[in-house]
Amino acid sequence: xxxxxxxxxxxxxxxxxxxxxxxxxxxxxxxxxxxxxxxxxxxxxxxxxxxxxxxxxxxxxxxxxxxxxxxxxxxxxxxxxxxxxxxxxxxxxxxxxxxxxxxxxxxxxxxxxxxxxxxxxxxxxxxxxxxxxxxxxxxxxxxxxxxxxxxxxxxxxxxxxxxxxxxxxxxxxxxxxxxxxxxxxxxxxxxxxxxxxxxxxxxxxxxxxxxxxxxxxxxxxxxxxxxxxxxxxxxxxxxxxxxxxxxxxxxxxxxxxxxxxxxxxxxxxxxxxxxxxxxxxxxxxxxxxxxxxxxxxxxxxxxxxxxxxxxxxxxxxxxxxxxxxxxxxxxxxxxxxxxxxxxxxxxxxxxxxxxxxxxxxxxxxxxxxxxxxxxxxxxxxxxxxxxxxxxxxxxxxxxxxxxxxxxxxxxxxxxxxxx
Length: 419
What we know:
Layout: E1 7-11, H1 15-26, E2 30-35, H2 40-49, E3 55-58, H3 63-66, E4 71-74, H4 83-90, E5 95-97, H5 98-104, E6 109-114, H6 119-130, E7 137-141, E8 159-163, H7 166-169, E9 179-182, H8 196-204, E10 215-219, H9 223-226, E11 235-239, H10 252-263, H11 268-277, E12 286-291, E13 294-298, H12 305-314, E14 319-323, H13 336-342, E15 343-348, H14 353-360, E16 366-368, H15 372-382, E17 388-391, H16 404-416
Parallel strand pairs: 1-2, 1-4, 2-3, 4-5, 6-8, 6-9, 7-8, 9-10, 10-11, 13-17, 14-15, 14-17, 15-16
Antiparallel strand pairs: 12-13
Helix pairs in contact: 6-10, 10-11
C-alpha cells in the first residue's frame, strides 16, 4: 500500500486513531484529523505528532473536509452508517480501520483472536505460548496496544497475537490472519449491531480472506462457533472437544491457547508451564488486596452477562457486587438465579442501573450509587470479614469513563485508599 503524498483522514482521534496517524506519517502520507470532540487531550495528542501543515477539524465533521481525502481510516467507535462514512463512500473514497491499515504494512505472521468473551486473556496467553517458539512475539490489537503502534518494529518471521473486535472487523478488506481463533459467541453489542445475526456476521469476517494453508481454531463446545467450520477455506482445529480435551485442563482459555501452540509446534509441556506461570491480565478477575478480611477484585473488563456469570461461578465467597455503566442492549435476567444465591448485595451505578434493577428486582438486595466512589464506600461499609467486593459491570464504561481501563484503575485507586 503506497501512502506517499496521499491525503489520509483519521476519523476519530483516540488511541487507535493516533497510532494509525503515526504509521501513516512514517509511510509518507499527508495526515488530516477529524473528530466530533474538541478536548485538551485530543489537542495534546495532535501536538505530540509534531507535524507541520496538518489539517484538523474538531468539534464535528464536515462533508467538505471528509471528501477531500484519498483514504479515510475509521475509529472502531464510529458506526458505518454515520454521516462522515456515508460522505466518504458517496465520493468513492476507501474507508478502512486501524487494524486493516496496520495489517497492510505487517510483515509478521498474524494469529487473530475473536469471540464474545475472554479475548484479552486468550490473546495474552497465546502471546506467552508463542514465545516458546523462540521467535519475536507482539501482543496487540483491541487489547490496548494498537497494531499500528507495533508494525514498524516487526520483521518477517515474527509473530503477532492480535485481539480483534466485531467493530474492527466491520472495516477489514484484505486482513488475513494465518490463524483465526473464534472463542465463543453470545449476546453482546446490540447497541451497535442490528441483531445477533448481524453481530455474528461481523465476527465471521475474521475468516473472510483465509486460504487453504491457513488455520481456523474453533470452540467445539459452542454450537454456534462449531458450525462456522463451513464458512472458511482454512484447516480446522477444534478445542474443547471430546477428542482433544485434556483432562488436566478444564479452562477453555487454556485449551484455545494449547490448540494454537500445537499449530506452531509448541509442546504440551511448554504450554502447561506457561499456564502455571500465568498471572492473568489487568482488569480481568484481578485481585487487588484484602482489607479487614475483605477481598477486593477488579473485573472491569467484564462488560457482558456471560462474563459476570463466569465470575460468579468461580468466586466461592459471599459477594457484594458493583455493576452498571452504559447498556449494550443486553438481557440481564440470566444473572438472576446465580446472583440470588451468591450476591449479598448488588450496588448499581451508571446509565444502565434502571434496566438492571428491573431485570433483577426481587432476586437480591439492590442499592443505587451516584458514582464509583460512592459504590466503593457503600460496599466497604456493608462488607464483613470473609466477604468479597467485586467490580463486575456487565456494561460498557463510556457513560462515566473513557474506557474499561480507566474504570478499573479508578476502582483500584479507591480500594488502595480505603482505611
